[in-house]
Amino acid sequence: MVPGVRCWILTLMVAAAGCSGKQELQYTDCGGSRYSDPCGAVIAFRTGAPAGESVSGLSKQGPAAIPILIYLMTGESTQTAIAAAEEIAKLGAESVPALTALLKSKAPHRGWAAWALGEIGPPARDAREALQSAESDPALRVAAGEALRKIGE
Predict the structure, then answer these.
(1) What 8-state DSSP symbol labels residue 45?
(2) Alpha helix locations (H) across 96-140?
(3) Long-range contacts from 18-22, C-beta under 8 angstroms, 24+ separation
(4) Cα first-last separation, the chain
(5) Residue predicted with more confidence, 37 or 108
(6) Is 16's pLDDT higher than 60?
(7) Partners of 36 in beta bridges
(8) E strand or H helix at 140, and its extent?
(9) Are 37 and 65 in contact (CB under 8 A)?
(10) DSSP codes joined into one string, 42-84
(11) How far apart are CA 153 and CA 84, in angstroms?
(12) pLDDT tens for residues 63-111?
């Protein structure tokens, strides 16, 4: 992706998520300005921050963090996808539509969407059909089956 477009998309996602408030984490935006923001971890991850940065705590932003967490789940880093899945599962039923859409996509790490749906449990009942379809995909079979068991068929 063209760096300028990538930066623009990230800035738009952070703005759409309504991230605000102060936090120790700082990041630099596309124009070189430095900011303190609760969503700084997202910007850091997607712009080449050092390994080990954490997405932990993004769920505290509530449903506004869902688009960012879904975006992080579709990136190249498995570690980041796992951390984002753990955070989005904490948001419960509100994240089910986005997780279901991710599960139906061809995105990398979509198995973590199945895992997160299982962690949500019975409130993720609306995802059962997508999980049942995912069971036919060898890459998703185990995660989808386990999620269905936790949700309750």
Answers:
(1) H
(2) 96-104, 111-120, 128-134
(3) 18/61, 18/64, 19/61, 19/64
(4) 41
(5) 108
(6) no
(7) 26
(8) none
(9) no
(10) HHHHHTTPPTT---TTGGGGGGGGHHHHHHHHTSS-HHHHHHH
(11) 26
(12) 888 988 998 888 888 888 898 999 999 999 999 999 999 999 888 888 9
